[in-house]
Design brief:
alpha/beta; two-stranded parallel ribbon; 17 helices; 13 strands
């Protein structure tokens, strides 16, 4: 009997120890490589100015972050995920299927997607049509007739006589990246629909239309460079013939090394992204698991820091890092949503 009591006590102690080990006293954040530097500076400021531990920020890509975020509720799952695109309805459904029902959406500002090259090389002046023809898997046959063929273009000059005769070599993000999602939607599709016969497909067969406009070639002209935008900057420096795709903040912080291409006659500047004239710009977000607020220490205080004027305001420290701030009214709306922990409702 005594042995049974001892065993029971040992099991109880082990269980208690396991629960204690499973608790977490820091905020776990995953997601977008574009939002990563902004979240990191907020986390560092939060860690230095409060009694809470500095949040752990991981760069997994928007899609990868949302997959981790939606996997469940509990300390083994992240509290927040960053995204350089809005959450999809299919991801909200995946979250719900795993018990993640109450999600708070926070838009933090805007960013432009730049097509950059080394400062030692000539600056490119591109159209979205040029980008589509350079990178699409299938392109219209030059002979006409509404036929699509495997992309035959080898150099930029093959596409546009005003462009250099260098080989098409573009370093870009993988499919899990929000930057990739936004690039194919804003730049590739923007160029794709300049062809009337493809544009007409959108109403007739949206799936085929999207397949044509969003599919990137796989013959080596486009090189997936992972979720590390700093690595792309380094590779552009060492290879002046290549172009790279990443967020404006990385251009802003590496302006001594790389330059952004002009797109549809607009340069990727802070002002052009802020006023919407630069055609390849997008909003940035993060998503919060409401079930973790009050369970993991410091989440509400971290949200307050991120949505404070000193962080995301017009003269905030995130602007110094290259983020384009939202207009006052929009900032006020999202700050109120954060304060009230208002739940995301996607329009059906």
């Amino acid at each position: 009997m005594n042995n049974r009591l001892i065993l029971a006590a040992a099991l109880t102690a082990a269980a208690a120890s396991s629960v204690q080990a499973a608790s977490r006293d820091y905020i776990s954040v995953v997601g977008s490589s574009t939002v990563y530097p902004f979240a990191t500076v907020v986390a560092e400021t939060f860690g230095k100015t409060t009694a809470f531990k500095t949040p752990k920020i991981e760069s997994t890509g928007s899609g990868g972050g949302l997959k981790l975020f939606c996997a469940g509720v509990g300390v083994e799952h992240p509290d927040i995920t960053n995204a350089s695109r809005r959450i999809k309805s299919s991801e909200v459904e995946r979250c719900a299927s795993n018990g993640v029902n109450d999600i708070v959406e926070v838009k933090i500002g805007y960013d432009g997607i730049v097509i950059a090259n080394a400062k030692s090389a000539p600056q490119f002046n591109l159209t979205r049509r040029d980008l589509f023809l350079a990178l699409a898997k299938k392109v219209p046959n030059v002979n006409g007739g509404g036929e699509l063929i495997d992309n035959p273009y080898k150099t930029w000059q093959d596409i546009n006589a005003s462009l250099p005769a260098t080989a098409i070599e573009v370093l870009g993000p993988p499919p899990t990246s929000g930057t990739r999602d936004a690039f194919v939607e804003l730049a590739m599709e923007g160029g794709c629909k300049t062809f009337d016969f493809i544009k007409a497909m959108k109403k007739q067969d949206k799936k085929t239309y999207k397949g044509i406009c969003h599919s990137i070639r796989e013959d080596g002209a486009f090189i997936e460079a992972g979720e590390n935008d700093n690595l792309i900057v380094q590779k552009l420096e060492s290879n002046p013939a290549a172009l790279g795709i990443f967020g404006f903040s990385f251009l802003d912080q590496n302006a001594d090394k790389v330059q952004g291409s002009i797109v549809d006659n607009v340069a990727p500047t802070f002002e052009a992204i802020a006023d919407g004239s630069y055609p390849v710009s997008r909003p940035l977000y993060f998503y919060v698991k409401k079930a973790h607020v009050g369970k993991i220490p410091g989440i509400q205080e971290f949200l307050a820091e991120f949505t404070s004027d000193k962080a995301w305001g017009e003269e905030g420290y995130l602007v110094d890092k290259g983020m384009i701030p939202m207009p006052n009214q929009e900032r006020s709306q999202f700050a109120a949503d954060v304060k009230g922990l208002n739940i995301l409702r996607l329009a059906k």
